[in-house]
Amino acid sequence: MTDTVTSTREAGEAPSYREMHRDASEFASRSDYLEHELKIMRPRRYGLNLIGRDFHFELEDLVPAIAGTIGIIAMYSAVMMSWANGLSAAWPDVTLGREFAIAVSRLEMLLPVLLFCVLGSGIFNPRANLAGNHGPMIPLIASMALAGAHPLALALWICAFGLGLSWVKGGSRLVNLTSQGTAGGLLIFLGFSGAMSQIGSLKAWGMGLEGQMGYVALVVLAVNILLYAVLARLGKRWLAIPACAVTGLVVALALGAGFDLEFTTETGLPPLSPSYWWGSTGQGWMLGLPNMQHFIASLPFAILAVAMWSPDFLGHRIFQEMNYPKGTDRVLMDVDDTMTMCSLRQVVGTALGGGNITSSWGTYMIPAAIAKRPIPAGAILLGLLTIAIAILGFPMDVAVWPPVMCVALLVGVFLPMLEAGVQMIKESRDAQAAGVCLFAAAVTNPVLAWAVTMLLDNNGWIGDRERATRLSLADRLIIPASVLAVCLFAMLAVGMFEGQYGIPALF
Fold first, then answer.
1. Backbone φ and ψ of 360, nearest 5°
2. Which residues span the membrane (predicted)?
């Protein structure tokens, strides 16, 4: 080993991960060992990353794997049910329901996960975060269906726009143009609104039980608040999702809410042939292949989805930067590589018969960052776990049960987002930008708020007035104004302001 290290150094190369790896017993604490692992890793970009040579599996990798699996089951189910309801309302000859939604969800959890989680982020490019689900787009799926959008046409547009933006390094540039205050305000709004949404969903579930057992939701929340506080005090917040999800399950069952938990998903495989899903109007999606009208109707929604990627990716990378020690830039997620992975996963997953709208996998990245773990090992574990659950079937029924799903999203995604946003606001100029971002998000939505605040902040109209002097004309005005114009056009085109302000869709 010594000869290897010496020869490597004589050649002017840095020692490899295998040469610098040390046993955990040699460190004063587990945290020191995990930080050392982050500092010595040198992921191979679009190369072969091997277990033992380039990374190791650790116990902490199980936590983001379990958290990401719970999150993706819930999100995939929500997406597919939204498509089923929207298409059934929009197309007179289409009738889709829960069985269809579960089958498509399981389809998305098989080959796409193997290709882009296990192989993509786990083996060939650990700098790319896993390609997961685009949560903010879920409320728009019904509007997409009513507008005449086709899932496959939408996927092709998203892939084209995403690959184009990643090719010109547009994603990373937008992240670099977002100040601390703007990012902090965005995280606070997303964290708070998401937390309130999950609390509201859990309360509604409790009141909807036979006998209006709203107290079950109250006890579940109270017990998990206490548990989350204890984990934070012990420095074990990375255990929050599995610990709190299991606690929510046990408490709800103990209080007699178990009659609401039904096991209806059977073990097996969904139809795996793309021709089943898209080849005929009498099976699968019942839509057939997309035509020109479908592509036109899908265009503004695709523009909006890709425009929303940058703030989404920004939030996930911030969690790594805040929890990883200095000197770990090599293991931070690469925004442009993640955009490439999401683009390819979008078109491949949908071509096989899926309907997911892809983005960076937040329910994996946030707990992974808190646990101080890099991407690859957890990505492999998550992929294998997701595939196993897709085949077994019945665990999906548990994962989407409100005491499990709502609690997991609350403690694993939205509360950490809220905390990270608060931590980013360190000076009055950051607070000013964050305040404008919060106000704009409440008036419109988080994406438009991010675009508006970035334009104002980069020109010195709010926040750090010296910031404008350090930026070029393109970074200060042309790029932020173009982003704002594109986001505003896409939102007006698809009628995002119709419900709030009565402004009808342009098309």
1. -60, 140
2. 62-79, 100-124, 144-168, 180-200, 212-231, 238-259, 295-314, 375-394, 400-421, 433-456, 476-497
Could you tell me which of 261, 249, 286 has the C-alpha nearest to residue 408?
249
Are the beta carbons of 173 and 401 closer than 8 angstroms? no
Exposure string (b/e) for 7-44, b if CB count within 10 Å is 16 or more?
eeeeeeeeeebeeebeeeeeeeeeeebbbbbbebbebe
Residue among 112, 119, 148 at smallest CA distance from 133? 112
Cross-strand pairs, 55: 51
32 pLDDT band (50/70/90 cuts)?
A: very high
Least confident of 174-183, 245-254, 430-439: 174-183
> In the numeric block, which tokens belong to residue 119?
């192989």
Q: For residue 337, what are the contacts with CB-CB under 8 A and spacing of at least 6?
A: 45, 125, 127, 128, 166
**441 within 8 A of 192, measured Cβ to Cβ:** no
> What's the mean per-residue pLDDT of the chain?
88
The backbone region for 319, taken as left when phi is positive above 0, alpha when psi lies in -120 to 50, beta otherwise, is alpha
8 Å CB contact between 142 and 81: no
Place of tokens 């071509």: 351
Q: Give the model's confidence band at 12: pLDDT under 50 very low, under 70 low, under 90 confident, else very high.
A: low
Residue pair 482/173 in contact by the 8 Å Cβ criterion: no
For 113-169, write each residue's pLDDT tens digit: 999 999 999 999 999 999 998 877 887 788 788 878 899 999 999 999 999 999 988
Residues constituting the chain: 507
Residue 466 has what pLDDT? Answer: 86
Phi, psi torsion values for 55, nearest 5 degrees: -165, 165
- CB–CB of 492/141 below 8 Å? no
Phi/psi class of residue 25: alpha, beta or left (left: φ > 0; alpha: ψ in -120 to 50)? alpha
297 touches 150 (CB < 8 A): yes
Q: How many CA atoms lie within 13 A of 424 on its CB side?
A: 29
Question: What's the pLDDT at 7?
Answer: 44
